[in-house]
């Protein structure tokens, strides 16, 4: 696949996808997130998401309400049980990092895999970023699987991994949560097992 822009026609309008790399990432142009999407636009974006895995919308001045309205095009929204949310908006996580509050998400991870059914994804609205550093990075786990050595692939096929939220326990204790409160979360989220090699239910493709 070339890295030329791809134009997708939806509902007599169009949006353009400019790939960021060969397999992952695409910048969307031609859609104003302040406006309500048509069903055709929403379906087009979901198709683009399944293909490119990560979508970017630049220079979109939207409100929190518009952020949530856009997110609902992809399904029901969840409330994160551990992380602090924006006041008045339980579905929105408020993430602020600076020299006094360094980032805690800097390890490679997939979100909320400690749920029995992890979410489709997350929609990040960046309000302010430093001129250097502070990058959010993404990895194509289809490509990671497809490029595994055959011996490694055979070794991990069929294996399952336990997903724990230990990092959140540490943070909850730091915020003063009692062991009884933490124990309640242990009962609600009892360290589910997920396949090491997962098959996407819509694309049928395998990824780590």
UniProtKB/TrEMBL annotation:
One of its GO terms (cellular component) is cytoplasm. Residues 195-208 have a biased composition (Basic and acidic residues). The keyword Iron applies. Residues 17-208 form the TauD/TfdA-like domain. GO terms for molecular function: metal ion binding; taurine dioxygenase activity. Keywords: Dioxygenase, Iron, Metal-binding, Oxidoreductase. It holds the Pfam family TauD. Residues 184-208 are annotated as: Disordered. GO terms for biological process: sulfur compound metabolic process. Belongs to the TfdA dioxygenase family. This is TauD/TfdA-like domain-containing protein.
């Amino acid at each position: 696949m070339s890295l030329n822009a791809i134009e997708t026609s939806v509902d007599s309008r169009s949006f353009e996808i400019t790939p960021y790399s060969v397999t992952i990432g695409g910048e969307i142009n031609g859609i104003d997130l302040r406006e309500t999407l048509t069903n055709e636009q929403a379906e087009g974006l979901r198709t683009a998401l399944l293909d490119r895995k990560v979508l970017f919308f630049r220079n979109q001045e939207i409100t929190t309400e518009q952020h949530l309205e856009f997110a609902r095009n992809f399904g029901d929204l969840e409330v994160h049980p551990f992380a602090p949310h924006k006041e008045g908006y339980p579905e929105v996580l408020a993430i602020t990092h600076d020299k006094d509050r360094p980032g805690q998400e800097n390890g490679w991870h997939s979100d909320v895999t400690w749920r029995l059914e992890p979410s489709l994804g997350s929609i990040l609205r960046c309000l302010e970023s430093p001129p250097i550093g502070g990058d959010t990075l993404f990895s194509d786990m289809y490509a990671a699987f497809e490029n595994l050595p055959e011996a490694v692939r055979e070794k991990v096929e069929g294996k399952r991994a336990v997903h724990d939220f230990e990092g959140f326990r540490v943070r909850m204790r730091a915020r003063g949560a009692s062991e009884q409160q933490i124990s309640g979360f242990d009962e609600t989220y009892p360290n589910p097992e997920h396949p090491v090699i997962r098959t996407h239910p819509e694309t049928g493709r395998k990824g780590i």
